[in-house]
Amino acid sequence: MSSQERSAPRRRNPRGQGQVLKAQLVDAAAKLLSTLDQPETLTLRQVAREVGVAPASIYSHFPDLSALIQHVLRLRYEELARLMDQAAQSAPDPLVDLVARCAAYVRWGVDQPGHYRTLFGGRMPDDLVPGSAHGAGAELLEAVVTSLAAAAEGERRQPSAEQQWQAGLMLWTALHGLVSLYNDHGNIPWPPLDDLIADLLSLHTARPAAEIAALLPQCGDDPGLAPDSI
């Protein structure tokens, strides 16, 4: 249902169930942010219409649209961080940890293209979503930097902390580019997603792609899903 269509009238929540409405508002905002052609134009009125309440009902849970959007961002970052941590929790060595985290990141981005765009699309104005709202994204990057540095330990020449940060940043840039292009250009005859992940990590770890590919099944099966159109 588009944002222009009216939802069916919503039943009032019984007394004491205000958190139900809050969750519904958050779900509606997340849905609209992930499906609108121009998510930066989202309004509280659209969120209220999606849930079937008066716009004034939102203010008992969120002071303004910015607070609602930032809440959605925090939940999505937590979801992605949890998936990456779970993927790597039983990793026997740093390389497997890195492969698991990166594979989880890419697969979530491909499986959830709208939510990925919400986090990393960069289309929200600063006065609506300040840079501080993406602090959890910096934590995800730090985890990749740490994992990549650990996987590189034992090399003859150890990189400095600045070089480790730059290497991790370049890896995240490559991962983001892979997800974004894969999602936005689904008509291209892409190789299997696991092959792309293996080749990308091979370039950034100087390990053979075949070695990386052999570790990917431990991270879960390739979703094999074509990116959804947004």
UniProtKB/TrEMBL annotation:
HTH tetR-type domain sequence ranges: 19-80
UniProt cross-references to Gene3D superfamilies, sorted A to Z: Tetracycline Repressor, domain 2 (1.10.357.10)
InterPro entries, sorted: Homeodomain-like_sf (IPR009057), HTH-type_TetR-like_transc_reg (IPR050109), HTH_TetR (IPR001647), MT1864/Rv1816-like_C (IPR025996), Tet_transcr_reg_TetR-rel_C_sf (IPR036271)
Organism superkingdom: Bacteria
SUPFAM superfamilies per the UniProt record, alphabetical: Homeodomain-like, Tetracyclin repressor-like, C-terminal domain
DNA-binding positions: 43-62
Keywords, alphabetical: DNA-binding, Transcription, Transcription regulation
Database matches in PROSITE patterns: HTH_TETR_2
PANTHER family cross-referenced by the UniProt entry: HTH-TYPE TRANSCRIPTIONAL REGULATOR BETI, HTH-TYPE TRANSCRIPTIONAL REGULATOR RUTR
Protein name per UniProt: HTH tetR-type domain-containing protein
The organism of origin for this protein: Streptomyces rhizosphaericus
Lineage: Bacteria, Bacillati, Actinomycetota, Actinomycetes, Kitasatosporales
